[in-house]
Amino acid sequence: MTTAAHRYGELPPWSPDDLAAIHRLQALGRSVGHHFVGRRLALDLLEVAVIAREHVLLLGPPGTGKTDLVTRFAAGLGTRPFVRLLTRFTEPSEVFGPVDVAAFRDGRHAIRTEGMLPEALIAFLDEIFQCGSPILNTLLTVMNERVFHHGRESQPVPLISLIGASNTLPQDPALVAFADRFLLRVNVSPVADSHLEELLEKSFAPHPAEGAGHTWVDHESLERLGRQVDRVDLNRVTAVYRSLIRELLAQGVVLSDRRIVRGLRLVAAAAMRRESVRAEPRDLWPLRHIWTDPAHERLVQESVQRVVEADGGPSASTTLRAAHHILGEAKLTSRQVSAGASDAAVENVLRGLNKLRLELESVEPANLTARDELTTIIDNTLALLRV
Q: Mind listing the domains of the chain with CATH numbers?
């Protein structure tokens, strides 16, 4: 990340290619969010995580849609995630790949990793703390160094983010150390009590066959975001960050050196996601989720939120966007269909565009130019319906 290099000058803005990658990642989060209720925060953190190339831990009971959420998000990145439910009986070969029998006959130890975690961009491991130490020890190197060691061989791992899921955090000291590798933690709770009608509506909404594999962000764009995040200027947040960390440590919050150092990369990723080349205190919001001990979760969230709101950032429950962001997503959404698309596919896109129209009216009701532009996009999409 940029520090003193541009302290006295203006930073060059993001290039059109950079902005296109950012807009597509934002659009992916919104697109996936249309299928879920109460999962906006989890998607926000997944967006930050893939920019920062960090790992995420989803905490919550079974049946809250964690696997479906990650699968849909990964599909929008143009990849199929490696997904496994781990148990204490899971063998390393089920995660990393079986022994290469042909190589073994030649006296070499090799693993066939095709289609397994060492070749995945996104991995989702459910009940991640249930597996044995052979898997955990190998995962440590994969997560930290992006390297898979097998025998005398080592191979680079293209992993962008490993997403783990568990009902609760472990108490075993060895597992606590492993859990520290997941920089971001988010609780994924059931939503039926307060959003039953919306939950049922989305559950029974038709899912058209076309467009299901649409790629919002390709691998090249993801690599670009990962490289460019180092350009973000952190000068305006470093002092605030140090003060916040000291405050948390003084109150007994447990934060490893690893979490403290890597937390700044989350801030840079949040600024980039906001399309800014310069981080501001409002970009500290992902730090609400770097707590280690659940007993400190609320304290960390409240301390971070005070800093965010003091800088004019949104409240923890606010996710309003500017009109040009909404229009950018509307353009990307409309491109999912063209002449000849089925009515079901067009209608699915129109539902997404209508939600964007309602959001635009809520965010900037007086912006008639933006509303007219969005209306034109909707009308052009309507024209694709077969008469």
A: 52-195 (3.40.50.300), 323-382 (no CATH)
